[in-house]
Write a structure and sequence with these properties.
The protein is an all-alpha fold. The protein has one domain (3-453): Up-down Bundle (Amino acid/polyamine transporter I), CATH 1.20.1740.10. Helices cover 75% and strands 0% of the residues. The radius of gyration is 21 Å and the shape is globular.
Length: 457
């Protein structure tokens, strides 16, 4: 085995891949974003539609990305280049690589905030607050400190880089096996604590009893968007992770396992948030500030609040780390495969790139200049990066991958890859229908919706 082949690596086991891929999909989108988007869009009604879209759209696209990766044993750019040399399709892979580093740049900023808030809770900074306004003031002061924001960004990228530098099996797989069980256990403990609060039953009803009358085009669009983005689709992560899968592994059951764990984590996150919110008489549609503004005010009012709060932010930091690992691995795999760089060199340079790209986002929330509210778009630099990379790029990438698999590469070729080593694909006709007709149309609708409405989820 050559040094480059050693740098590229492979999963040590199917279970290791499932845990690592689930870690890629599970992140702040599940723990932070899913609850507040659900709270703004009808609670249980949103959850019901979200689960439907995860099964009908998310799972077929994930199977497709894993098949492309395993068939080519390449990064996103290299995969499309190998299948159709010198064609425009390689730019779909290039979009995925650029999207990965773009998302990492602002994602690591928010991830750094969760790490900082973990230590603030431990220090007791929220023990004496009496209202949400006080919690909001603390958050404003926290984000207004550019040196702190930049330091936390550096810390999170450094931790991520050290893990990815360890390689696929020794680094990503090993640490995912440690981090994911911690994440799951923390969620269960926090969910039990939340649902046992006095008055939590109203939150459970809001979250688990669907009101069909609340379903409208906006809810449908946001549920589809959340399903797509939550599963790390359209950015090359699953193509990259799929390239490390053994030919003997069942791609369908692997993809189904990842989707299952991702969905379970999101559902558990809602069980942590909504019972506590209703128990404290707070608005479930509080928006993105639920974590950094609303929750600290809850901790100050409840027994064991410091432990509960520290657990929440430790949970968020762990979830973020399992995702930043995959975000960094996407561009790293490109330079290892295509440019023949040693893995550590690729990690260093891509970490530096993510840090440089992340600097404007890190200082934008507390900035008094144009970074906090860009003149042409009306919102901050971090929100702009989220809109470009977290919504538009992922939508375009997922749409093109579905079209590529259904029409250009061909559904029959994908099925043949899935059925290698005698693996049976009982639902191949259902998958073909979904990837050729349902997925492209649905993703195109969500893409048009966010353009026309300017709704960035």
């Amino acid at each position: 085995m050559t040094p480059i082949e050693q740098d590229r690596g492979s999963w040590g086991s199917k279970a290791g891949f499932i845990i690592a891929a689930a870690g890629s999909a599970i992140g702040l989108g599940n723990i932070w974003r899913f609850p507040y988007v659900a709270g703004q869009n009808g609670g249980a009604a949103f959850v019901l539609i979200y689960i439907i879209f995860v099964v009908l759209i998310g799972l077929p696209v994930m199977i497709t990305e894993l098949a492309i990766g395993r068939h080519t044993k390449k990064n996103p750019w290299g995969a499309f280049e190998l299948l159709f040399p010198k064609s425009v399709w390689r730019f779909v892979g290039g979009l995925g690589i650029f999207t990965g580093i773009g998302i990492l740049s602002f994602y690591a900023v928010i991830a750094g905030f969760t790490l900082g808030y973990f230590f603030k809770i431990i220090k007791g900074d929220f023990s004496s607050i009496a209202s949400g306004d006080q919690a909001a003031a603390i958050f404003t002061a926290f984000t207004a400190n550019p040196y702190l924001a930049i330091s936390l960004l550096v810390a999170f990228i450094l931790i991520t880089g050290l893990i990815v530098a360890g390689g696929v099996s020794a680094g990503i797989e090993r640490w995912s096996k440690i981090l994911m069980p911690i994440l799951f256990v923390l969620l269960i403990v926090l969910a039990i604590r939340s649902i046992t609060l006095e008055g939590a039953s109203k939150g459970l009803e809001f979250y688990l009893k669907p009101d069909i009358s609340k379903i409208n085009p906006g809810v449908l669009a946001r549920a589809l968007g959340q399903a797509l983005f939550s599963l790390s689709l359209g950015m090359g992560a699953m193509i990259t992770y799929g390239s490390y899968i053994s030919r003997k592994d069942n791609l369908v059951t692997s993809a189904a396992s990842v989707v299952f764990f991702d969905t379970i984590i999101a559902i558990l996150a809602g069980l942590v948030m909504f019972p506590a919110l209703f128990a404290m008489g707070l608005d479930p549609a509080g928006g993105a500030g639920l974590v950094f503004v609303v929750l600290p005010s809850i901790f100050a009012k409840m027994p064991g609040g410091i432990l509960f709060g520290a657990g929440i932010f430790l949970l968020l930091a762990v979830a973020a780390l399992t995702s930043t690992i995959s975000l960094l691995e996407v561009p790293v795999s490109y330079f290892v495969d295509e440019k023949k760089w040693p893995r550590k060199k690729a990690v260093i340079w891509m970490s530096v790139a993510a840090f440089v790209m992340g600097l404007p986002s890190a200082v934008s929330l507390g900035a008094s200049d144009g970074l906090s509210k860009l003149p042409l778009v009306g919102f901050g630099f971090l929100d702009l990066m989220n809109a470009i990379f977290g919504n538009y790029s992922l939508s375009i990438g997922s749409l093109l991958i579905a079209v590529f698999a259904g029409y250009k590469w061909g559904a029959k070729v994908v099925i043949a890859e899935i059925q290698k080593e005698g693996v049976a694909f009982q639902l191949k006709h259902v998958w073909t229908f979904l990837i050729r007709f349902v997925c492209p149309v649905a993703i195109a609708i969500i893409f048009v919706y966010i353009i026309v409405t300017g709704n960035y989820f």
